[in-house]
Write a structure and sequence with these properties.
Length: 286
C-alpha cells in the first residue's frame, strides 16, 4: 500500500472512531507518526491560585521585618524564630448546621417558629453531634427565631456542654451576593444585597480564619444558621466564585464541616449538607 493511501486509511479510521479519545498526528515533513491523548490538549493552567493570606494571618505577612537579600546565618535563624512565633499549629474546625423546617407563612421573625418536623430534625442533628463526640469549643447561634430554637434543641441532646455559647446577628439569613446564573423566581432588590452582603461577609471574617499561634489544640466551632449563609461561606472558604452559592442545595438540619489548616491556610470541605442521620420521610429543604 502506498503512503498516500495509507494516510487516507488512517484519516477514515480517525473519523470512524467518533468520540473515542485517541487521534493520530502524522508529520509529512519528517515522515514520523505521533500518538496523543486528546484530553491532554484540553488541560489548562489553573485560572486562580490559592491565596494563602486569605485571612491576613499568613506568618510571613505578620512579620514586621523582612530578611535582607543576602542574610547571614544569624539573621536567617532569627527570622525563622520570629516566623515560628506567629505560625499557627492547630486546626480550626467549623461545623455549620442549618435550622430545622419552620413556619414560612409568618410575617415577622417571631412567628417563624419551627414546625413539629423542624423540631424533630433539630433533635436528630443534636443526637448526631453527641454521637460523634465532637469536643465542641464554641457554639454560636444566629439570633433569628428558627436558629435559636434549633440551637437550643441541639444543646439539649449534648452530654458535654463545657463550651462557650454565643449569639451572633452577623450570621442571620439574608441575600449575600447576586447569584450567577440568576434565578427567575428569587429576585431580591439590590439594596438587600448591599445591606445583607456586608453583614454576612463580616460574619465570615469573624468566624473563618486559621488558629491563633498560641492555640495548642484543635478547636471545634458550631454555627447554627441558615442556608444562604452556609452556602456563601463554603464558596468563600474554598476560594471558589462566591456568586456560585445558589447552585447548591441544603436540607434542613443538615451538617456542613469545614477545616482550616495552619499550612498555607488550607481549607478542606469534609461534609456538605450531610443529612444521613435524618430518615428520608423527615427530609425537607423549604
Amino acid at each position: 500500500m502506498s503512503w498516500k493511501y495509507f494516510k487516507q486509511a488512517i484519516n477514515v479510521g480517525c473519523y470512524s472512531l467518533g468520540g473515542f479519545s485517541l487521534y493520530y498526528l502524522i508529520s509529512n515533513e519528517n515522515n514520523k507518526k505521533f500518538v496523543q491523548n486528546s484530553w491532554i490538549s484540553d488541560l489548562k493552567p489553573p485560572s486562580t491560585k490559592w491565596d494563602k493570606n486569605w485571612d491576613h494571618r499568613d506568618p510571613s505577612a505578620l512579620l514586621k521585618s523582612s530578611l535582607p537579600e543576602n542574610p547571614t546565618p544569624d539573621q536567617q535563624n532569627k527570622h525563622n524564630e520570629e516566623l515560628e512565633k506567629v505560625t499557627a499549629k492547630a486546626v480550626r474546625h467549623i461545623i455549620l448546621i442549618r435550622h430545622g423546617q419552620y413556619n414560612t407563612h409568618a410575617l415577622t421573625d417571631k412567628g417563624r417558629i419551627l414546625t413539629e418536623l423542624g423540631r424533630e430534625q433539630a433533635k436528630m442533628s443534636g443526637l448526631r453531634l453527641n454521637e460523634l463526640k465532637i469536643p465542641i469549643t464554641n457554639f454560636v447561634m444566629s439570633t433569628m427565631t428558627r436558629a435559636q430554637e434549633t440551637g437550643n434543641i441541639i444543646l439539649n441532646q449534648l452530654d458535654n456542654k463545657k463550651f462557650i455559647i454565643e449569639n451572633c446577628s452577623l450570621i442571620e439569613e439574608g441575600a449575600p451576593i447576586p447569584p450567577e446564573p440568576k434565578v427567575g423566581h428569587w429576585k431580591p432588590q439590590n439594596w438587600q444585597f448591599f445591606v445583607d452582603g456586608s453583614r454576612i461577609e463580616a460574619g465570615f471574617r469573624k468566624h473563618f480564619h486559621r488558629a491563633a499561634p498560641d492555640q495548642k489544640e484543635d478547636s471545634y466551632t458550631v454555627l447554627v444558621c441558615h442556608a444562604n449563609v452556609i452556602r456563601y461561606y463554603v464558596c468563600r472558604a474554598l476560594q471558589v466564585p462566591p456568586e456560585a452559592w445558589l447552585r447548591m442545595s441544603l436540607h434542613h438540619a443538615s451538617i456542613t464541616w469545614l477545616s482550616i489548616y495552619p499550612e498555607n491556610g488550607r481549607v478542606i470541605l469534609k461534609l456538605f449538607g450531610d443529612c444521613g442521620h435524618i430518615p428520608k420521610k423527615s427530609l425537607s429543604t423549604a
